[in-house]
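Here is the promised in-class demo. Please do not try to memorize the tokens; focus on the logic of going from shape to residues.
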């Protein structure tokens, strides 16, 4: 199958529709393959385009030569007529007509060659534009993939740290702090209760008459014993 017969299929290739079918995981690989295939095609298209352009150029030259020849034999015919040589003029005009018939065929061939070369040039430009677009998209895609991979690593690290034994340290700290607060509250309550109890006891002693009398009797007894002891010593 020749390059021109594949022209329609190649021209219908579209990088955006190609990417729309790609999965996120293999989009970069798909683009790299597309670029490689496109660059390979460019080499083939350039070679065949050169051949088509050469054919167009050759036909254009033949057309130009044909026109020169037609004009030349028409001038010969005119010169023959001026000299009264109608027979020679007829020969020149007959040959000129043959050249004009050939020119019609050359013109038809040239137009086909020109159409082919225009398509080949269009194809080359299309492939070149697609390659440039694909390379730009590939670079952009790689940058996005790099960012995405870094984000995935960061997220994985965050999740891993969330499952770390140290991740529960805050809860443990809160639990210990609650126990400390409870103990402090109990101690403060006990201290307050003990203070109230001591105040009541001290206040009760103030009104405890029996206790005061017992203490007074004890003092008198101790004094008597002391005197008795001194008397014996004398």
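The designed amino acids, position by position:
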């Amino acid at each position: 199958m020749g390059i021109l017969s594949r022209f329609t299929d190649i021209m219908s290739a579209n990088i955006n529709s190609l990417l729309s079918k790609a999965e996120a995981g293999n989009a970069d690989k798909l683009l790299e393959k597309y670029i490689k295939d496109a660059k390979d095609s460019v080499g083939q298209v350039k070679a065949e385009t050169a051949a088509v352009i050469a054919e167009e150029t050759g036909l254009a030259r033949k057309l130009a030569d044909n026109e020169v020849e037609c004009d030349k034999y028409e001038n010969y015919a005119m010169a023959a007529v001026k000299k009264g040589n109608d027979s020679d003029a007829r020969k020149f005009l007959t040959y000129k007509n043959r050249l004009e018939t050939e020119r019609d065929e050359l013109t038809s061939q040239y137009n086909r060659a020109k159409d082919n070369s225009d398509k080949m040039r269009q194809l080359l430009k299309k492939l070149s534009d697609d390659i440039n677009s694909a390379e730009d998209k590939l670079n952009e895609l790689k940058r996005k993939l790099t960012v995405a991979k870094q984000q995935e690593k960061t997220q994985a690290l965050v999740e891993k740290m969330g499952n770390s034994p140290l991740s529960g340290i805050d809860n443990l700290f809160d639990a210990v702090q609650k126990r400390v607060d409870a103990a402090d509250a109990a101690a403060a309550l006990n201290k307050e209760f003990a203070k109230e109890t001591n105040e009541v006891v001290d206040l009760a002693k103030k009104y405890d008459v029996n206790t005061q009398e017992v203490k007074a009797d004890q003092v008198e007894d101790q004094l008597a014993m002391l005197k008795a002891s001194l008397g014996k010593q004398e």
